[in-house]
Specification:
The protein is an alpha+beta fold and about 110 residues long. It contains three helices and four strands; from the N terminus they run βααβββα. About 25% of the residues are buried. The mean pLDDT is about 85.
């Protein structure tokens, strides 16, 4: 089964912010562009077999299933909506950053409306 893949605005903003940090504070614009291509390519890949990724420890915070995918030191959190054949990337962060319950949408209805 193939899933459509979506990214919440908050997750997209976190990804873009991290790319900007890479470009301006760490390694330069080309490295940031390559990193973004890798991240978005991996996100697109979630359309195939998203359950290959384990449940996240943060899964207990939400009324819906939360899975995680590490890409180097960056972590994506996502959920799978079988009835809509969709995967939603909910949150993204560097591995050294803490995740808080408020980083996730409050309920599945929020995603259905997205």
């Amino acid at each position: 089964m193939t899933f459509d893949v979506f990214i919440t605005p908050a997750a997209k903003r976190r990804i873009r912010d991290h790319a900007e940090w890479i470009a301006t504070q760490q390694a330069g614009p080309q490295v940031a562009a390559d990193w973004l291509a890798r991240i978005f390519g991996t996100i697109d890949g979630l359309g195939q077999m998203p359950r290959r990724c384990p449940l996240a420890a943060e899964d207990t915070w939400c009324e819906y299933e939360v899975r995680r995918l590490s890409i180097g030191q960056f972590v994506l959190f996502f959920t799978i909506l079988d009835d809509a054949q969709a995967v939603w990337v909910l949150h993204a962060r560097h591995g050294r950053q803490l995740t808080r319950p408020e980083d996730f949408p409050s309920g599945r209805q929020t995603l259905d409306e997205g």
